[in-house]
Structures are given as C-alpha cells and as structure tokens.
Amino acid sequence: MKLSKDKVRHVAKLANLPLTSEEEEKYSEQLSKILDYTDQLSKADTEKVEPTYNVSGLTNIMAKDEVSESLPQEDATKNGTNIKDGFFVTKGVFNYE
Amino acid sequence: MNKVYETVIGIEVHVELNTKTKMFCRCSADYFGKKPNTHTCPVCLGIPGALPYINEEAIKKCMRIGLALNCSVNEQSYFERKNYFYPDLAKGYQISQLVKPLNINGQLEVEDESGVTSMIRINRVHQEEDTGKLTHVGSETLIDFNRSGVPLVEIVTEPDFHSSAQVKDYAKKLQQIFRYLGVSNADMERGDMRLEANVSVRPVGQKELPPYRVELKNINSFRFMQAAIEYEIKRQIWVLERGETLTQETRGWNETKKETYLQRSKEEAHDYRYFPEPDLPELKIDTLQLRELLRKQLPELPAQKVKRFFDEYGLNKAQIAMMADSKEMAEFFEEAVKVGSKYKVESIKVANFIINKKVNIEDINPEQLIKDIVNQNTGMISDEKELEKVVKEVIDENSKAVEDFKAGKEVALQVIIGSVMKKTKGKAEIKKVKEILEGVLKS
User: Fold this and answer.
1) Nearest-CA distance from A16 to chain B in Å?
2) Domains, in order of start, for chain A
3) ipTM for the complex?
4) Quick check: A96 pLDDT over 60?
5) Pairing relation of β-strands B151-157 and B93-96?
C-alpha cells in the first residue's frame, strides 16, 4: 500500500514536523512499508471475536478522590530543556494570532 | 428583532468540577494561584508509560449534571483520545468523549427578555480533562501544567437559541444549577465556567441551518457574551445585506471598542483522529439503579424551587428570583418564614424585608431577622446604638436621679427609665433600656 506524498505531508503537519521534499519521499516509502507490515493483522480470522478496544475486559475501574503527593517542581521540570521560574518555556505559540 | 433574518445559536459550556483530585491522576486539582508545576505527576505531564486512573467522584458529578439537565445516561460509556499538537497538553492528546458520552439528550427551559419560555435541547454532557495554562510573554510561551488534567465537563446544546437574552438566561441557569448541585464554583472570571457561542443568521422561513457559523470564544462574563452576540447578529445581517457571504471563523470580544474581532479565519477542517483510549476500561452503567441512587442525592433544583416558592409563599417573580438565587439564600428565607409564622409575620413581608434592607444572610440569623421585622412593625427602636444615645442624653439631663441611684436609691432608676420612654415616645423596649442603663451607669 503506497502512501501518497500528500498523506505524508498531512501526517507531518499534524505532528508539527517540518519535512524536506527528500524526506517526504523517504518517509512515504518507509511509512508505506510499516503499513504493509501491520496489514498482516487483517489476515487474521476474527470471525468469532467480539470487537473491543480494551484487552483487559475490565469495567468500572475507578479511584477514590483522595489526593496523593505530586512531584516537587524541580523533579517535574527536570527534563525540560528551557525552564524559567518553574515554568516550561517554549517558542511562542499563539492560539488565535 | 429583525423581520427578515432569524438568529440561530448553539452553546458549548465548559465547567471545571470541584473534585479534590484530577480526572486521571491523584494530583490535587486545587491549582488556582499555586506555584507553577507543583501539582503534577507522570500522568498529567504525559510521561510515556504513565497510566491514567478514572476519578469516580468526577464521574458521579458529571452524571448529576446530566440528570439535572434531564439527560439519559448512556449504559455504555468510554473515553477517547482527541489528538492535536499544541503545548497545552503534554500527551499530544486530550482524553475526552465522542461516540459514547456519559449523558445525552437533555433539555432546559429558558426565558427571553419578555418572559416567553422555550425548551433548549441538550445534545450531550460529557467528561474530559482541562489543559495546562499557557502564558504568552514576548516571543515565548510559559507552560504551567497544574491545571492539566483537572476534570472538565462539556455541555453542548442543539442550535435552539434565537436571541442573546435566551443565551444569557441559559448560562445563568446553568451556573445556578452547578452551584445548587455543589459540583463547581462556576466562577466565570476565574475560568471555572467558560462559554462558547456558535452564531449565524438565516432568512426567516428557511429550515436548514446556515452554511457557516461564527464561533465566539474566550469571553468571560455573561454581559460581554450577550453584547458580543448582539453585535455579531448586526454584523452578519449587514454583511448578508451587502450581498456578501459569511465564512466559518472564530471571533473574540473587544470590550473597549464594543465589537467582535477576528481571531482565526477559514479554519481548516479539524483532524483530531479520535480513537478509544486503550488505557482506560469502559464504564458500564446500570442505568436504572444508578439513576435512582443519584436522583435521591439530587437537591431540589432551581426550577423546582421557583415553582414551590410560588405555590407555597405566593411570592412574585422578582421576589422568587432573589429568594431562590442560591441554596443558602433559599434556606435562610424558609427558616425565617418558619420563625415568622410564630409572630404572624407573612412570608411576603420576610422576602420584602430581605430585599429592601439588602440583608446579608451571613451577618444575621433568621430569628434576629424576624425580631427586626416585628420591631419595625410596632415602630419600636431596634437599633441599640440609637437607644444608647437617648439613654446617655437622659443621664446628662438627670444628674440628680443618677446620683440618687449611685447612692443606692433603686427607685431613681425608674425616673430615668421614665424619661427615656418619654423621649422616645414609648418606642423603646423597657427591658432593653434597663440593660443599657445599667451598663452605662456601672461603667
């Protein structure tokens, strides 16, 4: 199943990945191979299998509304590449501008 | 009201629940005014491998909102991932509900400015999670994930509104219901409750929905929302009258200029790629049993209270609106009426006294309130300070009697009391005068 370049561009946009045209070509092939690989699943006989999205088969598993300790700020922000006054800092994003 | 065009509005309301913990982890949900990123854990920071765990209390509160809005409960309900790339959620998706929301098909009656009622259909009441808070500073954006994952309920109506007044009434009624239910503080300014209106206009008589809609967003007061809708209706009619077409766009409200402004135009079709959240087991709800249980816990709701106050107390609409405004006010009023009945104080008098004197129910108890009303009715001076003033005047004018009293002549007190009664034309309570006198003379 060949994934069109348009599809690749669309997926890249959704993931906010800037791609060069060579990369688009390359990923189009690679992603197509991945899809072909996973497509083997459609060969499985699922005639007698109920559709589900959850393999545990559990229902109504819920937690009581009781507070437990959160991470200290230093730990929470430890992996951030740019931290200022306890905030994560990112390139300016403006929702509506 | 324009005769050629008709307004069509649908409303989305988001409300943060006041649970102790977040929707899918047990971090404290009490984030307001806290230091940034101090209420987080691997789950709400979106760290790979962290597993969400549903907050039972949030589910119950969401269902109570659904019940209060006359919804049906879905017997099977599950969460889905709404995928989008934006730094307000670290996971890259928001856990929400699309196909099987907790509550569906509700309704709420609203009133327009002339008191005409109509029924608004509610499409769904579903459970989701709030996002982190972004602050834009210069060319940078600061992220605080304390709010990330706080339980958020979304209530979506059908496009059944035809005026801004109906929208305002709806929003106010929802806020009142949230507070009656005790599920949220529903404070607009703090962002506990957020409104979005989808506004469009169509020629009168047209049955189909208009081919566009303008989304009014990020408006944090009822008054501004009403003004924004009014402005938008005029603007859209003006554009159509000029023979131009309107397009899908998002607009905000500029309170200084009193106009809406474009925030985002020609939105690309969203591609959220919803799919069931595999990390969360589904909810199976024994509808009958659960409804019964939750219904028993449901307080008397504003609409029922209004009706009962009308039937039981014969109050008018304005009086009822004030007396049933909050659960606390309603309880105070009913308690005062109960006490009042012993003193032949009618319920209407109680309501009027509370309204006219702008009584703060936190400063006074129902018994005292009734006493004040009774005193006012008999013309008695109920204000102690006023009485004290008169007593002091009398003492100054009757130094002889005061000296006699201090020398042990108890009867001298009667002389002074008599003077007070004369001065107040009998409108003082003797017992009280005596108390004040003794206090002043012995000090």
Assistant:
1) 7
2) 1-43 (1.10.20.60)
3) 0.89
4) no
5) unpaired
